[in-house]
């Protein structure tokens, strides 16, 4: 019982880390960016998602190839956790050398710091918070469908070997990674909100064609499915940080952007694999696509209603 309990504790710590540090990482990038390059700078923390997924899946495939499934399930699964301690040490070294951004220093000079930032966000910036949460909803629904659900469904219902489909996902994640800087460039040129609207429209269209692309027996079509879906994920994920950050003034930007991003993750990601499995079993894969398309519609409405960027 100790092993799953410790694993759950690790996941809890991961949630605390992401909840507290994503906003800081994005703001560190965005608020140090030169004019006209906020989205480009803000996309670098977002690259952590595809890079992390690629490394974790690659390590899983490498271990199972080297030691076999039996040894992996007996003790090999601990190796990725041990390897990750290197990243913990590196992350701590970086954080101990960080300084406040110029924008936040100026806010302190002007005595604009909020005593209870959460209360300020909830009372004075509720519209930005609510629309920001739902603007990111489709992003997280898509990500967990394309990583957790499709892997489970492909290996349990479509007959793909786990190693084969993981390799396909790793190739698809390259499209995810490539689309992030592409979307950031477009966001700096045409506006972050416009880029998110275009990417969310693509997610809607992808949802409507979900069942036609995700089929058994065709590696080429499955790879196309993963490339388009994860590519759309990159297009929406790249500018998301900068867009959420600019919904709030400097004094509450960290808290507001972090709340919006992480609550969107909870609402979008947490139920997605389970709800998608229930829909697929009861109503077919087309229903999963309609679920994704509905999330895209919600995000489009939120982007339309979101307040203009704060100063």
From TrEMBL:
<dbReference type="GO" id="GO:0022857">
    <property type="term" value="F:transmembrane transporter activity"/>
</dbReference>
<feature type="transmembrane region" description="Helical">
    <location>
        <begin position="165"/>
        <end position="184"/>
    </location>
</feature>
<feature type="transmembrane region" description="Helical">
    <location>
        <begin position="254"/>
        <end position="276"/>
    </location>
</feature>
<keyword id="KW-0472">Membrane</keyword>
<feature type="transmembrane region" description="Helical">
    <location>
        <begin position="39"/>
        <end position="63"/>
    </location>
</feature>
<dbReference type="InterPro" id="IPR011701">
    <property type="entry name" value="MFS"/>
</dbReference>
<dbReference type="GO" id="GO:0005886">
    <property type="term" value="C:plasma membrane"/>
</dbReference>
<feature type="transmembrane region" description="Helical">
    <location>
        <begin position="75"/>
        <end position="94"/>
    </location>
</feature>
<feature type="domain" description="Major facilitator superfamily (MFS) profile">
    <location>
        <begin position="1"/>
        <end position="311"/>
    </location>
</feature>
<keyword id="KW-0813">Transport</keyword>
<dbReference type="Pfam" id="PF07690">
    <property type="entry name" value="MFS_1"/>
</dbReference>
<feature type="transmembrane region" description="Helical">
    <location>
        <begin position="196"/>
        <end position="216"/>
    </location>
</feature>
<dbReference type="InterPro" id="IPR036259">
    <property type="entry name" value="MFS_trans_sf"/>
</dbReference>
<keyword id="KW-0812">Transmembrane</keyword>
<protein>
    <submittedName>
        <fullName>Permease of the major facilitator superfamily</fullName>
    </submittedName>
</protein>
<feature type="transmembrane region" description="Helical">
    <location>
        <begin position="128"/>
        <end position="153"/>
    </location>
</feature>
<dbReference type="InterPro" id="IPR020846">
    <property type="entry name" value="MFS_dom"/>
</dbReference>
<keyword id="KW-1133">Transmembrane helix</keyword>
<keyword id="KW-1003">Cell membrane</keyword>
<feature type="transmembrane region" description="Helical">
    <location>
        <begin position="223"/>
        <end position="248"/>
    </location>
</feature>
<feature type="transmembrane region" description="Helical">
    <location>
        <begin position="288"/>
        <end position="306"/>
    </location>
</feature>
């Amino acid at each position: 019982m100790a092993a799953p309990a410790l694993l759950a504790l690790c996941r809890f710590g991961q949630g605390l880390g992401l909840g507290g540090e994503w906003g800081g990482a994005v703001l560190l990038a965005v608020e140090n960016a030169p004019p006209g390059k906020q989205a480009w700078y803000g996309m670098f923390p977002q690259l952590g998602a595809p890079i992390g997924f690629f490394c974790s899946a690659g390590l899983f495939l490498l271990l199972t190839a080297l030691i076999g499934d039996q040894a992996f399930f007996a003790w090999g699964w601990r190796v990725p956790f041990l390897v990750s301690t290197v990243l913990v040490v590196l992350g701590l070294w970086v954080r101990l050398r960080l300084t406040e951004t110029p924008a936040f220093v100026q806010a302190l000079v002007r005595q604009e710091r909020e005593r209870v930032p959460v209360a300020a966000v909830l009372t004075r910036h509720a519209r930005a918070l609510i629309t920001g949460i739902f603007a990111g909803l489709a992003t997280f629904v898509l990500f967990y469908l394309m990583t957790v659900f499709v892997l489970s469904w492909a290996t349990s219902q479509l007959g793909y070997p786990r190693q084969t489909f993981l390799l396909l996902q790793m190739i698809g994640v390259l499209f995810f990674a490539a689309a992030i800087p592409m979307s950031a460039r477009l966001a700096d040129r045409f506006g972050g909100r416009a880029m998110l609207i275009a990417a969310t429209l693509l997610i809607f269209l992808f949802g409507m064609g979900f069942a036609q692309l995700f089929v058994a027996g065709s590696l080429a079509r499955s790879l196309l499915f993963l490339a388009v879906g994860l590519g759309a994920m990159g297009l929406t994920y790249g500018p998301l940080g900068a867009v959420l950050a600019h919904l709030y003034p400097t004094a509450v930007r960290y808290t507001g952007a972090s709340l919006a991003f992480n609550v969107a993750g909870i609402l979008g990601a947490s139920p997605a694999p389970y709800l998608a499995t229930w829909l697929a079993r009861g109503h077919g894969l087309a229903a999963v696509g309609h679920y994704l398309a509905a999330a895209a519609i919600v995000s489009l409405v939120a982007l339309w209603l979101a307040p203009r960027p704060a100063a």
